[in-house]
Amino acid sequence: MPLSAETDTTTPRHLRDKYAIVGVGETKYSRGSGLTTRALATWAIRNAMEDAGLRPGDVDGLLSYQYGSDSTPSTFVAGDLGIRPNFFMDVHGGGSTTEALIGMAMGVIEAGMCRTVAIYRAFNGYSQVRIGGTGVRAAIPVVGDALHGRPYGWESPGQWFAPSFMRHMHDYGTTPEQVAMVKVIHSEHASNNPKALYPKRVTVEDVLSSRMICTPLHLLDCCVETDSGTCIIVTRADRARDCRHVPALIRATVGRCCKPRIDMHYQAGPISTVAAKYAREILWPNADVGPEEIDVTGSYDAFTFTTLMQLEDYGFCAKGEGGAYVSDGTMRLSGKRPNNTSGGHLCEGYTHGINMVIENVRQLRHDADDSCPVGADGKRIHTHDYREGGCRQVRDVELTANLGWANPGTGSALVMRRG
Q1: Is residue 366 one of the residues assigned to a domain?
Q2: How many domains in the chain?
Q3: Is 198 a catalytic residue?
Q4: Which residues contact 419 (CB under 8 A, 6 or more apart)?
Q5: 359 in any annotated domain
Q6: Beta 87-92 vs 61-66: how paired, if at all?
Q7: Cα–Cα distances in Å, from 99 out to 31, 33, 34, 142, 250?
Q8: Is 120 assigned a catalytic role?
Q9: How far is C-alpha 275 from the geometric centre of its chain's CA atoms?
Q10: If we measure between CA atoms, which residue out of 42, 3, 10 comes closest to residue 26?
Q11: Which of 92, 345, 350, 415 could anchor a disulfide with 251, C-beta 3.0 to 4.6 Å?
């Protein structure tokens, strides 16, 4: 007989709040870094170590991910930084990998294989290896998994995901105007983020009048492409107390949870239902909180639609009500549950999800790196004035959720709380 969440003794609730993210670091988000991925990685990891108050000898684990050989392995990066790993691994993956690697970091530390793990993502996603069917990827032969998509014109993520988006519109009456509000709200947040590649605020009309890329996606429904390096550092909560900042304690994580089929997910369950339907059954019991208790979300926004569909299937609103949820002001900085407070992939930069984890860590510290004045103690004095060019720190953040996405059939998630 299958075990329920209530009776399953393997549910890792003993890990709740036992691990924390103690350091975060980034390079600038650009469209032409002029640097190798090796240089971007070392820059981001060094920034994260400085943020945590750690030295190279304090970090003995490295995890990285790449998609189509677009990054530099951790062994090279470790040598450049003076880190001697007791554990390292470089995995293949894009979206949904960040949360999965956080779970792996917890596991290898729990197993005694290392003490502190740096997780990084470095790639020149605009100037070198681009995700769509352009640049280096255009020459990839039609073999393996590509046989399920490329012969039918599914060359890029927008084309792969569009049928799910269209079906959602058909089934639930979701309108382009509603979905465009995801971009509008994220652009408002980005306008208060000095790091954002696209800090300009846009309107619904701007989104709908931008050129069509792949029905129903306009240009401004799609994420930006950027070059960057990003890093987070995970260690035990008892060690985190010695680091520089209030730790972001890890309540629960879900990594690469899938629908019954991944390659042709539409053959197993509604095409407009995503992997979050299954991930939520792991996430909320393990975190011992529900979606109604979350203060800030970071929902993967490769496209405006991915945010809408995940928020629905993780239970932040009922199925079919995502259009209303993303367009009624709930996600704004001044709303009930702000989403992607840095501007996310649509406006800040595209990192396969790790920058939204970084942002939620800063929100939990109550120290978003916005344009608010800095006091004599070096800390920002947040005004909570959310007009353009102002504050993006949400008041009294205690719980955050990150909702990762690889495709409609695969997802990941993370719940953190202020330590």
Answers
A1: no
A2: 1
A3: no
A4: 17, 20, 237, 240, 246, 247, 248, 249, 364
A5: no
A6: parallel
A7: 26, 26, 29, 30, 11
A8: no
A9: 15
A10: 42
A11: 415
Residue 103 · residue 67 · CB < 8 Å:
no
- H/E segment holding residue 252: strand 248-258
| Domain that residue 90 falls in | 14-129+226-240
- Cβ-proximal residues to 378 (8 Å cutoff; 6+ apart), any chain: none
Q: Is pTM beyond 0.85 here? A: yes
Q: Of 300, 314, 325, 386, which is the active-site residue?
A: 300
- The count of residues in the chain is 419
**What 3-state DSSP class applies to 235?**
strand
Q: Give the separation between CA 34 and CA 229, rounded to whole angstroms.
A: 13
Kind and range of the H or E element at 61?
strand 61-66
The pLDDT score that the predictor gives to residue 9 is 43
Q: Spot the catalytic one: 19, 120, 278, 350.
A: 350
What CATH number did the domain enclosing 18 receive? 3.40.47.10
For position 145, what pLDDT does the model report?
66
Tell me the Cα Rg of the chain.
20
Strand arrangement, sheet containing 116-124: 87-92, 61-66, 116-124, 227-236, 19-26, 248-258, 410-418, 399-407, 296-299
pLDDT per position as a tens digit, 169-216: 999 999 999 999 999 999 999 999 999 999 999 999 999 999 999 999
Question: Residue 194, Cβ neighbours under 10 Å: how many?
Answer: 10
- The C-alpha atoms of residue 228 and residue 18 are separated, in whole angstroms, by 30
Q: For residue 352, what are the CA distances in angstroms to 30, 64, 210, 225, 380?
A: 15, 12, 24, 11, 28
Residue 42 lies in a domain: yes
What whole-number distance in Å separates Cα of residue 40 and Cα of residue 23?
17
Distance CA 239, CA 115 (A): 9
The letter for the amino acid at 192 is N
